[in-house]
Amino acid sequence: MGKYVVGRLLQLVLVFFGVTLLIYLAVYALPGDPIRALGGDRQLPDSVINAMRAQFNLDDPVLLQYLKYLGNLFTGDLGTDFNGRPVADLMAQRWPVTIRLALTAWVIQVVLGVGLGVLTALRKGTWLDHTVLFFTVGVISIPVFVLAYTAQIVFGVRLGIVPVSGIDEGWPVSYLLPSIILAVFGLASVARLVRASMLENLRADYVKTATAKGLSPRRVVYRHVLRNSLIPAVTFLGIDLGYLLGGTVIIEGVFNLPGVGQLLFSSIAAQQGPVVVGVATVLVVIFLLANLVVDLLYGVLDPRIRHE
Amino acid sequence: MSDPTATITTEPAAPVEESAGKSSTLVGDAWRELRRRPLFVVGSLLVIVLLLMAIFPQLFAGWFGNGDPRVCDLSRSTEGPAPGHPFGFDKQGCDVYANVVYGARASISVGVLVTVLTLVLALVLGSLAGFFGRVVDAVVSRFADVFFGFPFLLGALVVLTAFEARSILVVALVLAMFRWPSMTRVMRSSVIQVRDMDYVRASVGLGGSRLWLLRRHVLPNAITPIMVMVTLDIGTVIVVESTLTFLGVGLQAPAISWGLQLSNASTDFAAAPHLLIFPSLFLSLTVLSFIVLGDLIRDALDPRLR
């Protein structure tokens, strides 16, 4: 197990360098000159431009720029945007919104996803099963922004039961609709995963053994089948936390929530390279860590997959 | 060669293939079972019609007399359905029906192109990594890890912003860049499973060369899991393309695509809901058809579910 963890961590470091390099290259290949764009119609004097280019290392070769950025990153410095505001501060203001949104969505996924999965597996072939299956497939086929706008108009504008946008009414009221929309995709996958693995496990020999030795059906289902069926769902839910953070870019845009996703999106439009690199890097690192935790949890949850 | 599964062809997911008589290959069985499912027949028909629409939009666009998506009448901006214009008019006064028909090509092209690119990469890299192991495996797997390290949408978003002009090909290449790792991983583990089978060992004993072995025995037997992923993937990619277009980093006007129509319509939804409803109906129908087909094929190919 120890050897596996060390190997996995080394792999993570390698991926980290690859991922950050890719983000850095993509952002610095952006068309246009970000420093000149700052001046707008009244061009900045050449001396100012040169000073700023030097400050952000923009005249170095890209690879050297990247190494300098990494150096700063390891001392915990995410740099400043082109207006001089520290990227870390910009993000710090916005994290609470994104974390609240993502975690609320995640909890919805866990509760409803596992619940619907168990329910449909136990009632296989009934109208309930078919309805849920139809819903889970149907929802995947609709782009998330279409779903978000539709829900916003129907529940926010027409019915008026939730705020249309913004976070003025705080958690949970303002976050309810955005979280549900954000959760819907993962929810469908969790429900299907749990259903499929429940159905597979329900036919397993250990279920017959458990029933034969006189356990109540409830105990067989919840203590034996469910525990074994949750492993694929746990993997998915761990990785999905990363996807939820990526999904906030769209949801925060539609519902006008001032979170990290919205920051990323507006920074791309405003050519704020340092902010884009910073936000994307942090999001990817969270995603990588979530993956790592899932991999390590796997061995704990399923004794058959112990890493010797 | 006595192993029954060794006769699997390289295109198990292609429904047009004739199964040879009563042979009980995995694919033959699956095909015979699928033909009897009404959902499979409906799904396949829908996919065929949509593919025809993508290739020959002019065949469908003129049904109501106004077949040119670029002939617009600004005075009828955002008007609802009218005679000759069953889906109404968009903001520029163009016929929505013609636009939706012509939009099929861009969206389906992206879906198919990404999937083909991913499939080729996964087939080559996955089978090499799985079959040869060691250094090849390490290099391929680490590269895959890097691209797998991004949440799909986030990676595509960051890279696509670097392009000023984004054609169908550019969007497809970037999406494939972040799509290949998952399929390659599946292919790799599938090849590893097959590699150590007795019939492969036997072929080694008979003096087959390594590459011949890979092509003749390992590949045909390891390909099934990723063929199922392919069908499911086309749908997912079409949805992702429209989402990226909505974020402003996908296809650009004057291209005609469902993603562009949807992202233009989403801001005017309250005033002109038909602009959102009709393109999204077609998009969802397309995605749904591919997903349902993929699901049915997977179930048919999984012997445990028989």
Automatic annotation (TrEMBL), chain A:
It is a multi-pass membrane protein. The chain crosses the membrane at residues 12-30, 99-120, 132-155, 175-194, 229-255, 275-301. It is found in: Cell membrane. InterPro entries: BPD_transp_1_N, MetI-like, MetI-like_sf. It comes from the Bacteria. Residues 95-298 form the ABC transmembrane type-1 domain. It holds the Pfam family BPD_transp_1_N. GO terms for biological process: transmembrane transport. GO terms for cellular component: plasma membrane. The keyword Transport applies. Keywords: Cell membrane, Membrane, Transmembrane, Transmembrane helix, Transport. Belongs to the binding-protein-dependent transport system permease family. PANTHER family: DIPEPTIDE TRANSPORT SYSTEM PERMEASE PROTEIN DPPB-RELATED, DIPEPTIDE-TRANSPORT INTEGRAL MEMBRANE PROTEIN ABC TRANSPORTER DPPB-RELATED. This is ABC transporter permease. It comes from Jiangella anatolica.
Automatic annotation (TrEMBL), chain B:
The lineage of its organism: Bacteria, Bacillati, Actinomycetota, Actinomycetes, Jiangellales. This is Peptide ABC transporter permease. The keyword Transmembrane helix applies. GO terms for biological process: transmembrane transport. Residues 1-18 have a biased composition (Low complexity). Belongs to the binding-protein-dependent transport system permease family. Residues 1-21 are annotated as: Disordered. PANTHER family: ABC TRANSPORTER PERMEASE PROTEIN (PTHR43386:SF6), OLIGOPEPTIDE TRANSPORT SYSTEM PERMEASE PROTEIN APPC (PTHR43386). The chain crosses the membrane at residues 39-60, 110-132, 152-178, 218-240, 276-297. InterPro entries: BP-dependent_transpt_permease, MetI-like, MetI-like_sf, OppC_N. Keywords: Cell membrane, Membrane, Transmembrane, Transmembrane helix, Transport. It is found in: Cell membrane. It holds the Pfam family OppC_N. Residues 108-294 form the ABC transmembrane type-1 domain. Its main location: membrane. GO terms for cellular component: plasma membrane. It is a multi-pass membrane protein.
